[in-house]
Write a structure and sequence with these properties.
The structure is a single chain. Helices cover 82% and strands 0% of the residues. It contains 10 helices and no strands. Helix 1 runs antiparallel to helix 2 and helix 2 runs antiparallel to helix 3. The longest helix is centred in the N-terminal third of the chain and has 34 residues.
């Protein structure tokens, strides 16, 4: 029962995100910065869920929940790369919508292809560096041979909590990472949507507001879902040590967000729906 549920969710997530990628790449009208970020976000979504769910399916089938030390560090590293990349991409998409709505005449000049590619590459490199910092801190935990983590994957915060002694340097690194990948992206997204809202309120007719609200609504839904469940995971693990109370928000954070992303963008975005219809028509011919 549980195996079939998570397997179906995984396959739907991969298929949905692949359809988004195919729709964006096949339609020339979608070759814009916003949809470039969306297609990369779909790639990241596939990688993010593939970090945890396949291994969990093996656990369910084999009834074994053990993992090697190297496998644990590898999963932490890959999980953090995709997780951090998703945070930064959502922030870039918020900035893109801010430029498109608040500075429409200079949009193509500001969001030029060179800048967009540079921002994606910077986000990728920053995500790799952030994951390696966590791995280096985890490598200091050498006093345990067999430990149990109350979760279906190796959550980095829970692994780091296994250390008996937290040095001043470790705490500084944690706060630095939390500020760089938590506080600043959240602040940037909130500022972008504050400026977007004030600009849209100046538009006199409701019809002209619909399309900006439509594109922003999809992105804002994903942002709230991702950040909301992420905050829920870490608050839940800090407040309660019950495996059930930790596993449920973790499943929402790692599985459900990636599953719902394609549905949110395809159902609430006219351009994506139009591109998907063309894709299905071309496939049927």
């Amino acid at each position: 029962m549980l195996f079939g549920l998570f397997l179906s969710m995984y396959l739907i997530t991969v298929l949905g995100n692949l359809l988004i990628i195919l729709a964006v790449t096949s339609d020339p009208h979608l070759h814009t910065p916003m949809y470039l970020f969306l297609s990369i976000l779909s790639c990241v979504g596939i990688g993010f869920i593939s970090t945890t769910v396949p291994k969990m399916l093996v656990y369910i089938q084999s009834h074994s929940r053990t993992i090697s030390y190297v496998g644990c560090l590898t999963q932490i590293s890959v999980f953090l790369i995709f997780g951090s990349m998703e945070v930064l991409l959502l922030t870039l998409m918020a900035y893109d919508r801010f430029v498109a709505i608040c500075h429409p005449l200079n949009y193509l000049l500001i969001m030029n292809p060179r800048l967009c590619v540079s921002l994606v590459l910077i986000s990728f490199v920053a995500s790799i560096l952030e994951s390696q910092l966590h791995v280096l801190m985890a490598l200091q935990i050498t006093t345990f041979t067999e430990v149990e983590i109350p979760n279906f994957f190796r959550d980095p915060s829970q692994v780091l909590d296994l250390a008996c002694v937290h040095s001043f340097t470790d705490n500084i690194i944690k706060y630095f990472i939390g500020t760089l990948f938590g506080f600043f992206p959240t602040l940037g997204t909130l500022f972008s949507y504050y400026k977007i809202t004030t600009s849209l309120l100046r538009i006199p007719t409701s019809g002209e507001k619909y399309k900006p609200f439509s594109t922003c609504g999809s992105h804002l839904s994903v942002v709230c879902l991702f950040f909301g469940t992420g905050i829920g995971v870490y608050i839940g693990s800090a407040v309660s040590h019950s495996p059930r109370n930790i596993a449920v928000p973790s499943a929402m954070y790692t599985v459900v967000t990636s599953l719902l992303n394609p549905f949110i963008y395809s159902l609430r975005n006219r351009d994506i729906k139009r591109a998907l219809r063309r894709l299905f028509k071309a496939a049927s011919w």
